[in-house]
Amino acid sequence: MFSVGDHVVYPYHGAGKVQDIEEKEILGKKLNYFIVFFPLNNVTLMLPENKIGDSGLRSVIQESELAALRDALTANEAMPPENKSRSYSRENELLLKTGSIFDAAHVIAQLTAKEASRTNGLHIEDRKNLDRAQQFVLSELKAVPFLTDSEAVHFLERHRQHTP
Description:
The protein is an alpha+beta fold.
C-alpha cells in the first residue's frame, strides 16, 4: 500500500502525492482514507483504503520502465482514415482515462504522427487529447525521484519529436 509522501498516479488526474492518511468514521464504520493532492488539476481527493485496488491508483513509473516508455512515445503509429477520426478521438479519450503512462504515450505517438502528416495541423479534439496526454506523461515523469523536472521535460520533448 502507499505511505505519506509517496508519489502516485490516478486515472485522469495525473501524478500526485499522498499528503496524509486519516481514519474517518462514516456510517458507523472506521476506514482509513488516503488524502492525495494532484497538482495537474489542483485537486485533493480522499480515497478510501478499501477501494484503492479498484480505483486505479498506482505508483509512478520505475526507472526500469523508461525504455518501454521511450518506445511507446516513438512508435510508428498507423494513421486513422479521415472518416474514422471521431472514433479515434473517442478511443484516445478512453486511453487517457486509464491512467496508464503507456496509454498516454500511445496517444502522443499516434497524434504526433497524425499532426506531422497533415498540412493544416490537428483538429481541436485531437489537439486537446495531445495536450492532455503530454500533461499526464510530464506530471508523472516530474514525480519520479530519478529525474529532475528539466530532465523530465527533455525526455518527453526528445522522444515525442520523431518523423513518422
